[in-house]
Specification:
This is Putative membrane protein. The protein is α+β, with helices and mostly antiparallel strands. It has two domains: about 1-35; about 40-195, 2-Layer Sandwich (Alpha-D-Glucose-1,6-Bisphosphate, Chain A, domain 4), CATH 3.30.530.80. Helix content is about 45%, strand content about 25%. The protein is built from five helices and eight strands; from the N terminus they run αβββαβββββααα. The protein has helices spanning about 1-35, 60-75, 155-160, 165, 170-195, and strands at about 45, 45-50, 50-55, 85-90, 95-105, 115-125, 130-140, 155. Strands 3, 4, 5, 6, 7 and 8 form a six-stranded antiparallel beta sheet that branches. The longest helix is centred in the N-terminal third of the chain and has 33 residues, at about 1-35. It is flat and about 75 Å long. The protein starts with a helix and ends with a helix. Residues about 30-35 have low confidence and may be disordered.
Length: about 200
C-alpha cells in the first residue's frame, strides 16, 4: 500500500512539473510574439508590402501624435548616410521615409554571416483612431567583393524573400531564407519602435 502512494505522488509531481513547464513555454512564446507582428511575407498585387495598424494614445489628438512621430523620424534618420529622403505632410499627418540599412544575416551552414544592404520605404499615416504603417519598395544589394562589377546587382524583395522565392535548394535557398529572417526581424523592430511612440 505504501508503494502505491509513492507511485501516485510521483505521477502527480510529474504531471505538475509537466504542466508548469508547458505553461512557462506558452507564456514565453506569447511574450516573444508580442513584438513579432510580421511573421510572413505578404504579396499584394505582385509586390511585397508589409502593413500594420497601430492604436495610438487616445489622450492625444492626431496632430499631437503626428508631432511625436515627426520628432522620432528626425532623430532616427537625420544624418544617416543611408537616408534617401524624408517627406512630411502636415495636412494629412503623413510621413514617408526612404532609407537603407546594413543587414547582418544569420550564419549559414559554413558559419559565415553575410552582409546585405537593404533599401526600403515606409509610410506612416496618423488618424484619430491610430496610425497605419506600410513598408514597401524593398530591394537588396550584396556587399561588394573583389572581382565584382563596379555596379552592384540589386534584387527585389519579390525575387528573394517571398514564400515562392525562398523555396530554392542549396546555398541560394539558404541565403534567401536568412535574408528573409533578417528582413522580418528588422521590420518587426521598426514596428516596435513606432508602436512605443504611442
Amino acid at each position: 500500500m505504501f508503494q502505491g502512494n509513492k507511485t501516485n505522488i510521483y505521477i502527480i509531481m510529474k504531471k505538475t512539473v509537466l504542466t508548469i513547464s508547458l505553461l512557462l513555454a506558452i507564456i514565453l512564446n506569447l511574450a516573444a510574439q508580442n513584438d513579432a507582428v510580421f511573421s510572413s511575407v505578404p504579396v499584394v498585387n505582385g509586390k511585397v508590402v508589409f502593413e500594420q495598424f497601430i492604436i495610438t494614445n487616445s489622450n492625444k489628438t492626431a496632430e499631437q501624435n503626428y508631432v511625436q512621430l515627426q520628432n522620432w523620424v528626425k532623430s532616427k534618420y537625420s544624418g544617416s548616410p543611408l537616408l534617401s529622403g524624408i517627406r512630411f505632410d502636415e495636412k494629412s499627418n503623413f510621413v514617408t521615409v526612404s532609407a537603407g540599412t546594413n543587414l547582418i544575416l544569420p550564419a549559414n551552414k559554413a558559419g559565415v554571416r553575410e552582409e546585405m544592404t537593404m533599401n526600403y520605404r515606409f509610410d506612416v499615416s496618423i488618424t484619430g483612431a491610430g496610425c497605419m504603417l506600410v513598408v514597401r519598395d524593398i530591394t537588396y544589394q550584396s556587399a561588394k567583393k573583389d572581382g565584382d562589377s563596379f555596379f552592384p546587382k540589386k534584387y527585389t524583395a519579390e525575387q528573394t524573400i517571398t514564400d515562392q522565392s525562398v523555396n530554392v535548394y542549396g546555398t541560394e535557398g539558404e541565403l534567401r531564407a536568412n535574408l528573409r529572417k533578417a528582413s522580418l526581424d528588422f521590420f518587426n523592430g521598426l514596428y516596435s519602435e513606432i508602436n512605443k511612440l504611442f
